[in-house]
Amino acid sequence: MIEQLATLAPGPFHWLSLTVLLFAIGIYGILTRRNAVGILMAVELALNSGAMNFVVFNKYVAPSAVDGQIMAIFVIAIAAAEVVVGMAIFVTLFGHRRTVDVTRMDQITDAAGTN
Q1: Which fold does the domain 12-104 belong to in CATH?
Q2: pLDDT in tens, 30-83
C-alpha cells in the first residue's frame, strides 16, 4: 500500500487545485485583514499562486520550453517591487498615524489636523 502511494505523482489537476486554494487564501486575507503588513502578505500569496500557474501550465503544455519559469521570475520581481513601495507607504503613514490599521487610514490628515 505504501509503495503504491509513493509512486503516485501529482497531475495538473492537483497542482492547479493547489494554486486555486492559495489564491483563495490570498484573496480572503486581502479582504479580511486590518493590518497593512498582513494585507501585503496576502497579496504576495495571491501573486505567487499566479506565478505557480505559469510554471504548472508550462510543465504540462510545453515541457521543453522555459517560458513559464521566466514569467514566474518576472512575477516574483514585480511582487518584490510592490512590497517595497507598499512598505514605504505604510512606514510613512505609520509615522503620521502611529498605527498600521488600514480601517483608520481613511483621511489624509490625522486627528490633530497636521500632515
Answers
A1: Helix Hairpins (1.10.287)
A2: 999 988 889 999 999 999 999 999 999 999 999 899 999 999 999 999 999 998
> What is the DSSP track for 54-94?
HHHHHHHH-TT--HHHHHHHHHHHHHHHHHHHHHHHHHHHH
Query: Residue 68, class by beta-carbon neighbours within 10 Å (0-12 exposed, 13-18 middle, 19+ buried)?
Result: buried
Tell me what percent of the chain is helix, strand and coil, each rounded to the nearest 5.
75, 0, 25
Whole-structure pTM value? 0.79
Residue 75, CA distances (Å) to 3, 5, 88, 109 in order:
37, 34, 20, 34
Contacts of 52 (CB under 8 A, 6+ apart): 15, 18, 19, 22, 72
